[in-house]
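Exam prep: given the inputs below (a chain plus zinc ion), describe the expected output before reading on.
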Amino acid sequence: MALSSGSKAILIILDGLGDRQSKKSGWKTPLQLARKPAMDKMACEGMCGLLYSISPGVVPGSDTAHLEILGYETPKYYPKRGPLEALGANIKLNHNDVAFRANFATVDEKMNVIDRRAGRIDTQTARKLADALKGIVIDGVNVTVKHTVEHRCVVVLRGIGGDDVTETDPHENGKRLECKPLESRSAKTAQVVNKLAMEVYGRLMNHPINKARKASKLPEANMLILRGGGEYFPVPTFAVRFGMNATCIAAGALYKGIARFVGMSAPDVPGATGDGNSNLKNKLVAARKALKSHDFVFLHIKATDNFSHDGMCLKKAKMIEKIDREVIAPLLKAIGNDVVIVLTGDHSTPCCKGEHSGDPTPIVFYKKDNTRRDGVKKFDELNCAQGSLGWIEGKHVMPIIMNLTDRAKKYGA
Ligand SMILES: [Zn+2]
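Solution:
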């Protein structure tokens, strides 16, 4: 149920949307190349600008960028990646739980990592191996291992506190790293991580699946290597901070995890995959349905970032066209003047770089017949730079939404 009076809002984040011009693409960005009449209509009738999700020049991770845009300043509210992945994998976390991302890996008898992904072990096999890692208790600490996809897992050390430890994932094949504490409170965490490695090796070394893999000359999945450890702590919910009952429509576990971290619901959407084949129509249906029962909907689409990381500028432009056709156009038709629509990216991922960059991303705030029109006609990096908002930071997005939804309280008398 809606929490309070005021308009509703839908925040649409196209991951890695911003780009740079390159020779390969005729000195145009994917947004400039794409035919996207609905996004351009939003630019014509809304307020435009550029968004630095953290601050100018900072290269954001998707996790920190989203938290800042959702109004959770990261120096205070960033639990690091592990807890967000754990929440995304539907693991319930309690204060002081320390969560890590983990890979099934192959080590030799001297504990050297031979393959960081155990031959990119398939989802079904990895899940069976994770079943063999249930019920582990080390020095009184309960350990949860949950498989997610392919060679990936999440590992949670319950109630241990202290996440300032080195990673055991060497990030390239080589020696398996020993976990070391970087401050005294994390000494026990390091100790448990190191003992856990031996427990995992003991349980998996002679597992029938690994015996069969060895016989077939496949790398055995006999170790878990850990990275991105972070200590979970509860934060004031989005509903408490902004007075809006919120939900998230996303495919990727990280984005669902971020939403759950700030107290939003994050249901599964059938056919939503987080890649170029994701069922956008189902996501649109889910978002429209969610708007009936919620004040705030966060809709995330990942594929733009995937094409950027692969350097596929034209495919990114085609994806933008598909999003325009299948999400933005029908949304503009369906939504009246009681919903604010915000369209942006979490950061730029220039195709020519294949990685995130500190360049800002276009942003538009649109409320049918009810936002200041600033003369910008196209939704892209160059045109939005001429918009009335100038450049803003992630932390400004929620206050602007609060103003446009008529929910902001007067500052002063
Ligand atoms: Zn991102």
